[in-house]
Structures are given as structure tokens and as C-alpha cells.
Amino acid sequence: MGVKRVKPTTPGRRQARFDDFSDITKTAPEKKLLIIKKRSGGRNSQGKITVRHRGGGAKRYIRIIDFKRNKYDVPARVASIEYDPNRGARVALLNYMDGAKRYIISPTGLKVGDEILSSNKRIEIKKGNAMPVKYIPAGVAIYNLEMIPGGGGRIARGAGNAIYVMGVEGKQAQVKLPSGEIRLIKKECLCTIGQASNPDKRHIKLGSAGRKRHLGFRPTVRGSAMNPVDHPHGGGEGNQPIGLKHPKTPWGKPALGVKTRRKKKASNKFIISRRGKKRR
Question: Which residues, given as ranges, of the chain have pLDDT below 70?
């Protein structure tokens, strides 16, 4: 993938950066692997808004992605690399030797015609192959890692993300996540070799409010622009500081940088080094 600029005919297009889709080999998705994406506008079953700033946007179909990679020891050939509007990474359409077709998150460098394999045994270290993390040598990049064996990939599925195996000891493997966190994972957890595709996505700039609306996001109003009755930051003549020691949400709770993870969460024992901490 590459990032392209366009002629600055408007202020929005001057700032915008677009995807050139140079790595896409097929535009029409596989119909049997599509379901319609229903929209809620951020509302729950009672019709109340539980997630603000959601609504509108272009209609989408959901590509059914095979996160489990549980079709073991059946070779598959890459039929196409496709765009998925629901994620930043590209998806690859696999044609299995037994006639089945499935989508997977494509790794960087995967090409049409490549043959890949998924197995619960030791197989070749090759981009797109999937196997338990206990067979991955230290320093090899992986993605789409399971947290529970057989539960499907949960970690490092976004564009350009990769996990690095640091070693396997006993019943667990030590991995370094994209956030910098180092944690333990059961060594039977399945993972895919390589780095999730489309790492240049972070260079894309929307440039205009209209493009944000197409993604299904509605406008966000600053709290300092509101009245005191509407927000703790509101009030004052003209532009004013928030008048508080720490910023708050519209409901008076601490905001911006506040830790939200429960102190007694059961999985804390698996975290060796927290994200954001400098190791000495």
C-alpha cells in the first residue's frame, strides 16, 4: 500500500492523505462470505444513547473472517488481496484444496498465488502460516494471537501490528505486545506468522469533517464551549481555562489519562511488564 496526495483545491484536500489501494487485486468481495452490518446509532435496546457521537456513515457488509484458522493441515492458495471497510488491514481470500473458501487477515508481503497452511503441529516458518506459539522461535513476528486456546485470534489484528515472541518456558510463552506490554500466554494458543498488512494506514489523514461522517462518526463538541449546566468545563466569557485541577467527563468523572483497569483483575498475574513503563 502507498499513501498519495491530491491537488489542494480545498483546505480539506490540502491536508488529506489518501490510500492508493495499490495492493488490492480484487474489488468485488466473495458474496458467500458477507453479512449485512446493522447499525444502532450508539443506542441500546431501550433506544437510549449509550455511545455518543455515532450515526450515519456509508453502508457496509461484514466480511466473515476466519480468526480461528482451525482448518488444520489443508493447504490453501491465496486467491486475492481485498479491501475491508471494517478494519485497517487487508484481507486475503483463501481457496482450500477441499473447495472451501475463507477470509483471513493478510500479513504484509503476502501475494496472490502463495500457498499457506494452518496446523497444530510444527510447520514451516512462513508468512501467513498458523501454528501454536510454542513452535515459534524467539524474535519472530506474529499477529492474530489467541488468548485462550481455540478461542480465535484476539491480539494484534489491526493494520501494521505485530507481536514478538521472547521465549517459551514451562506451560507458557512470553510475548511482547504492540503496546510494549510483556505478558504470558498459554503456549498452545494459535498465532499467524508475520505482521498484519497495511502498516502505512497510520499516515492517512482524513482532512475534512465529511470523511469522518462517512465513517459513521458524528460531531463532538468541546466541553469548554458549553454552559456550566451541560458540562463541568463550561461557562465563562469567551475562551476560558476549565477551572479545575483535572479534566472531567460530562458526568463529573475524571478524564484523560485516568487508569481504568481494575486493580484486582484476574489476568494481572500474567502481565510481566506494563505498557508505557521504561525497562531498566
Answer: 1, 277-280
Dihedrals φ, ψ of 79, to 5°?
-90, -35
Is residue 259 situated within a structural domain?
no
pLDDT score, position 272:
94
Does any domain span residue 210? no
Q: Which pTM value belongs to this model? A: 0.89
Calpha distance 262→267 (Å, rounded): 10
Distance (Å, whole) CA 219 – CA 208: 12
Distance between CA atoms of 275 and 177, rounded to whole angstroms? 9
In a domain, 71, yes or no: yes
**Number of domains forming the structure of the chain:** 1
Report the distance separating Cα 61 and Cα 83, nearest Å. 12
Q: Which domain holds residue 122?
A: 3-201
- For residue 234, tell me if it sits in a domain: no
